[in-house]
Design a protein that fits this description.
Elements lengths: L5 E4 L1 E3 L7 H4 L12 E5 L8 E2 L9 H7 L7 E8 L5 E3 L3 H7 L7 E8 L4 E6 L5 H9 L7 E5 L5 E4 L5 E3 L3 E8 L5 E4 L15 H7 L13 E7 L2 E8 L3 E8 L8 E7 L5 E14 L2 E6 L3 E4 L4 E16 L7
Antiparallel strand pairs: 1-4, 1-20, 2-3, 3-5, 5-12, 6-13, 7-10, 7-12, 8-9, 8-11, 14-15, 15-16, 16-21, 17-21, 18-19, 18-20, 18-21
């Protein structure tokens, strides 16, 4: 089977805190009561992406990549609609997750696509605490007094290394790029009941094992603005980490041309994943043309070669990470 650009159908997830913006504004047709998450690019068995075009249409992305002899991408990309607060939670690192859960750990980043004026999120602790103080705050329901509440706005970038206590707050619509893992340890859930009428499960013992108790430095700006690459194109490096590298690509009109254009070389070194956050993007490669609109994603297999991008769109471009030790 030959290489070509793949348009992906996302796996959709319903959770108690979700809303309906992904259905109403991002084209995610579903019979779910709430569309909380859209797994835009996934080879995880809990929510695999399905190919929508070409000879491999109907196959999962994982099956296609196996058939063409390529490794599976080590990342998962989601759109998340937080109509209500998510639980306060933490993810383990690779060593703990592999030993206890049998899958990779989970370091992630959030790009704030939209946010209400009062939107906030939780990012670690206000100050260093002991394991015993952490455990007691969970037990006596005072954890929210110890966490760091951070206001957010559209365009902010948050890097969440494994072991960071965190929570997405209501009013945020986020694009999340993470390791391909579905392990989450929930420590506080606002006393909510699940559909079964019972409190949702907490994972306190495991959270105590993996949570970092020191505050983290907070940086919400892109790592680099790569200005003036081409007329009609703006490029920003949002985050380079050992696990993923993510850019924001904006194509727009300029003098003498009514759209932006960019040639993208997809080398054998890494796949490229495109997630359209606004506008419309056209992509030509390997004799195929794709049209992607707001809320749609494509996967460009490693070694695909030259791809021609055009349109007026805001896009996140994700690829392999640096592979260096995490910071």
């Amino acid at each position: 089977m030959e290489l070509y650009p793949l348009k992906l159908k996302a796996a959709l997830k319903e959770y108690i805190w979700g809303g309906n913006r992904l259905r109403e504004e991002y084209g995610k047709a579903s019979d779910l009561d709430k569309v909380a998450e859209s797994w835009e690019m996934s080879v995880h068995p809990d929510g695999p992406s399905v190919i929508m075009n070409g000879p491999a249409a109907g196959k999962t992305l994982a099956d296609y990549l196996t058939a063409v002899g390529q490794e599976l991408p080590p990342i998962l990309i989601k759109l998340i609609d937080a109509h209500d607060n998510l639980s306060v939670q933490v993810h383990p690192d690779n060593e703990y997750a592999q030993r206890v859960e049998g899958e990779p750990g989970k370091t992630e980043m959030w790009y704030i696509v939209e946010a209400t004026p009062d939107a906030q999120l939780i990012y670690g602790f206000k100050q260093e605490i002991t394991r015993e103080e952490f455990a007691q705050s969970i037990k006596d329901n005072t954890l929210l007094d110890k966490v760091r509440q951070v206001p957010v706005k559209k365009g902010d970038v948050f890097y969440i290394p494994s072991g960071t206590l965190h929570a997405i707050g209501k009013g945020c619509l986020i694009c999340e790029i993470q390791q391909s893992s579905n392990t989450t340890y929930r420590v506080y859930d606002y006393g909510r009941l699940g559909k079964d009428g019972k409190p949702r499960q907490l994972h306190v013992a495991k959270a105590l094992d993996v949570t970092k108790l020191q505050p983290l430095a907070l940086h919400t700006a892109p790592e680099a603005e790569i200005a003036g690459v081409l007329a009609g194109v703006e490029l920003s490096l949002l985050k380079q980490s050992p696990y993923f590298t993510v850019y924001r690509l904006d194509l727009h009109d300029f003098v003498g041309q009514d759209e932006g254009r960019l040639d993208l070389m997809v080398s054998p070194a890494s796949f490229q994943a495109l997630t359209v956050l606004a506008g419309e993007l056209r992509l030509q490669a390997a004799g195929q043309e794709l049209r992607l609109v707001k809320g749609e994603s494509a996967y460009l297999p490693a070694g695909l070669g030259l791809c021609h991008l055009s349109g007026k769109a805001s896009v996140l471009l994700s690829q392999k990470g640096s592979g260096n030790a995490d910071a």
